[in-house]
């Protein structure tokens, strides 16, 4: 069937995001090192807390900030100074107002796609933060629909496509995360294109059991769609 709708992920597909988290993670380790066992792997401990909290806090900066606070308390045995906890909260607020930095070629590519297909942005994370980033991106006037969801699994994609009356066999999803943007869409019979980003959160790593089209840049997406209608 001919592709009529294109789905786009947001974070690290349309704009830079993971780098901000990894920079903050490195800062967290430096900040906490004086208060805990020097042999402790703070990156792993923070990651463990994040994964443990996913079912309760979900994704995004606010969840990450709460996990930093919780991890700080755990790795220091509750001895972390209040001034450090305050610094963690302040860093989270700074992340929430970090400027939106579009990836190279995004604005032009989304404009081209919007002239040929229906376009829906499907992103997960904190509602208020994602809405702010979308508004600042300058892309909202180019897309038909935006869906901010708690998780991106097969059931979510089915719900989104059904809600907008988008036939799955006329839909293709493009994004950087194999686990969230590619495999769930393939699982419901749709098509997906992987556009890897330089940095990937460990939770999003996954291995496809089938051949998945991979592009080096979102700039290549319009031509790929023409070649694979």
What would you say this structure looks like, in words?
This protein is 47% helix and 11% strand. It contains nine helices and five strands; from the N terminus they run E-H-H-H-H-H-E-H-E-H-E-H-E-H. It has helices at residues 18-32, 42-57, 61-75, 82-96, 106-114, 127-137, 154-163, 178-187, 221-227, and strands at 5-8, 118-124, 145-149, 171-175, 191-194. Strands 3-2-1-4-5 form a five-stranded parallel sheet, with helices on both faces. It starts with a strand and ends with a helix. The model has no long low-confidence stretch (mean pLDDT 93).
Would you summarize the structure shown here?
By secondary structure, the chain is α/β, with parallel strands linked by helices. The protein is 47% helix and 11% strand.
List keywords for this structure.
alpha/beta, single chain, 9 helices, 229 residues
Gross morphology: elongated
Q: What is the mean predicted local confidence, pLDDT?
A: 93
What summary fits the major beta sheet?
5 strands, parallel
Q: How many DSSP H or I helices?
A: 9
Total beta-strand segments: 5
Residue share in β-strands: 5-15%
Element order: H for helix, E for strand: EHHHHHEHEHEHEH
């Amino acid at each position: 069937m001919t592709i009529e709708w294109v789905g786009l992920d947001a974070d690290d597909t349309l704009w830079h995001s993971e780098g901000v988290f990894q920079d903050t993670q490195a800062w967290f380790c430096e900040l906490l090192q004086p208060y805990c066992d020097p042999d402790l792997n703070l990156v792993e401990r923070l990651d463990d807390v994040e994964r443990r909290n996913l079912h309760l806090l979900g994704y995004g900066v606010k969840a990450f900030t709460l996990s930093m606070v919780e991890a700080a308390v755990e790795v220091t045995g509750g001895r972390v100074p209040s001034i450090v906890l305050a610094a963690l909260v302040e860093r989270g607020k700074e992340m929430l107002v970090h400027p939106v930095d579009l990836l190279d070629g995004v604005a032009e590519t989304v404009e081209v796609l919007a002239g040929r297909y229906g376009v829906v942005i499907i992103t997960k994370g904190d509602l208020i933060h994602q809405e702010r980033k979308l508004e600042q991106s300058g892309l909202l006037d180019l897309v038909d629909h935006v869906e901010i969801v708690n998780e991106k699994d097969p059931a979510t994609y089915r719900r989104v496509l059904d809600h907008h009356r988008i036939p799955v066999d006329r839909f293709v999803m493009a994004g950087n995360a194999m686990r969230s943007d590619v495999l769930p869409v393939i699982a419901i019979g749709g098509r997906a294109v992987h556009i890897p980003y330089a940095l990937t959160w460990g939770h999003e790593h996954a291995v496809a059991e089938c051949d998945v089209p991979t592009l080096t840049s979102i700039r290549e997406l319009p031509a790929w769609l023409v070649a694979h209608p």
